[in-house]
Amino acid sequence: MITVHHLDNSRSQRILWLLEELGLEYDIKYYKRDPKTLLAPISLRQVHPLGKSPVITDGTLTLAESGAIVDYLVEQYGEGRLAPPPGTLERLRYTYWLHYAEGSAMPPLLLKLVFDRIEQQPMPFFAKPIAQMITRRTKEAFITPQITQHLNYLELELGKTLWFAGNEFTAADIQMSFPIEAAVARGGLNNNRPRLMEFCDRIHSHPAYKRALERGGVYQL
């Protein structure tokens, strides 16, 4: 039996969605973030040394990293579903987006989250203006332009095909859902990029997406 070690408000929500799309039975072990630090509990380190989510266990196998988990589940249990045939252009695009989601799209969004929180943290009155100036300039000079560049690129790519790997829905779209939803929440993604917003509407309408939310809980990015 597959067990998903599910941290609230985390990337592991995608794994629940993938398992629902594949129609697989699975258990969930729930973990709560520390309300002050928002970090995962130490108990997750008992599953994987890094103590991060998502992590799955499948028999004697313990596997971390979203892309690796998606790859494993589709290869092991997909039976040809949710991935284009090997050797096709669609398969190459599938592999690209599977890695792009975490390797390229998420870093600037994560930096935006970190710098936003620095601005909101309590600190001595004499330090706050300096901290705000540094965070504001860093966001203006580097983080926001990077997010804008990625969102423009994604909007352009969805003008070529209906889904990221081609005209069929694949696990790459599940993998890409998190950075796009994060961009809606904190990266300035709105109706000015209609293809990306329409992508969000389409994934949210998937019955398996809704079932994953019912099991994993509504999450905030």
From TrEMBL:
This is Glutathione S-transferase. Residues 87-221 form the GST C-terminal domain. InterPro entries: Glutathione-S-Trfase_C-like, Glutathione-S-Trfase_C_sf, Glutathione_S-Trfase, Glutathione_S-Trfase_N, GST_C, Thioredoxin-like_sf. The lineage of its organism: Bacteria, Bacillati, Cyanobacteriota, Cyanophyceae, Leptolyngbyales. It comes from Stenomitos frigidus AS-A4. Residues 1-81 form the GST N-terminal domain. Pfam families: GST_C_3 (PF14497), GST_N (PF02798).
